[in-house]
Design a protein that fits this description.
The protein is α/β, with parallel strands linked by helices and 244 residues long. 39% of the residues lie in helices and 9% in strands. It has a domain of 123 residues: Rossmann fold, CATH 3.40.50.1010.
């Protein structure tokens, strides 16, 4: 049985930290970048951690999810990014110990190491991965998400999709309805039941989509599922895509 002792290392969501730091620096100038980051890290780091790394995403166009769902995060391409975002990221890479990998996001990197390090982010999507998690804005201490808790979170995300990332999910199925489905199904094969919903016409997403039924269900699952330990090979850059 895996020890539930909280790790002493943390992996921080470098994407969110960089974005927020760049917004603050834009109101001043780039000379404030070091001070802004140091102040942010003081708040973001859990007291349990005596060491940390920063996770940074690959470029959006190189993300493996784009290969299976071309609309992934398309809505973000028209949004203006902070002027100093590149400078902030360059500074983070120069000064801090960073983790980056081809074809995957910061979320995936944190998910891969969540069993041995504390994944620090304000992004709720990480709760679909078992392991140690910490939201500095909502929690006083890191919390452990069990395999069962992560699986339930994933099933809900699979049904609801994620509009912020252009993942439609099932038509008119929100978190409340998704939870009611899980409750009704009980010990049944949840994956099979969700695929059945995707095969029903009344739940088909209204976004223009060439996929349907089981094929669409599989793509939606792979888009919302954050990678966990063993899903990515650093040498070959192979990704073990999820299967029911």
């Amino acid at each position: 049985m895996k020890s539930l002792e909280c790790p002493s290392t943390a992996i921080l969501d470098g994407d969110i930290i960089a974005y927020r730091a760049a917004l603050l620096a834009d109101t001043a100038d780039d000379t404030f970048i070091p001070a802004i980051l140091e102040e942010m890290l003081e708040f973001w780091l859990p007291i349990e951690a005596n060491d940390f790394q920063m996770a940074l995403s690959c470029s959006r166009k190189d993300n493996f999810r784009r290969e299976i769902w071309p609309n992934y995060k398309k809505n973000r391409e028209s949004k203006h990014e902070p002027d100093l975002l590149k400078e902030v990221k360059d500074y983070i890479r120069d000064v801090y110990n960073c983790l980056e990998a081809k074809r995957i996001e910061a979320d995936d990197i944190m998910g891969i190491y969540a069993e041995e390090s504390i994944a620090v982010t304000i992004d709720k999507d990480l709760r679909g991965v078992p392991g140690w998690h910490y939201n500095p804005f909502k929690e006083d201490f890191p919390t452990y998400v069990s395999k069962d808790e992560a699986e339930e979170f994933f099933c809900i995300q699979w049904m609801t999709g994620d509009s912020t990332d252009c993942i439609p999910g099932l038509w008119r199925v929100g978190p409340k309805r998704a939870k009611s489905f899980l409750k009704k199904w009980g010990e049944c094969d949840r994956h099979e039941k969700i695929i059945e919903l995707y095969c029903e016409d009344r739940y088909q997403p209204k976004d223009s989509c060439d996929l349907e039924g089981e094929e669409l269900a599989l793509v939606m699952a792979r888009c919302v599922r954050i990678l966990s330990a063993g899903c990515y090979d650093n040498q070959t850059e192979e990704i073990s895509l999820w299967n029911p």
